[in-house]
Please model this.
Amino acid sequence: MDVELSAEFENILKWATDNYMIVNVSKTKDIVFHRPSAYSLLPPVLTGIELVVSAKLLGVTFCHNLKFIITICSQRCYLLKCLKGQGLPAKELNTVFYALIVSQILYALPAWGVFSLLI
Model:
């Protein structure tokens, strides 16, 4: 069933009001997930809502091309490289890797891993 974007947004606003919640429109973003070749087929933008190509939610950055990035992991990989350069033994590097990187991936995977199935 097709629903107009503006009508769906009105339903969200109504649901929020009915559940005693407030939608902060100034912080609301619109992101359209699509394959790269479909970029020219974007739907109309909602009035007052910014159209973005990426959005960060709970430490995970989502991109319009169906990729998500755990940005903090790339920063932590640099830290691992520095620790290795300083001579930290492999066993301790492995411990740091699991504590800083694997924990972030495991945190994000249950909620956002479904996006990897779409690619």
Notes: The beta strands are 29-31, 50-52, 54-57, 60-63, 68-69. The chain has a mean pLDDT of 79.
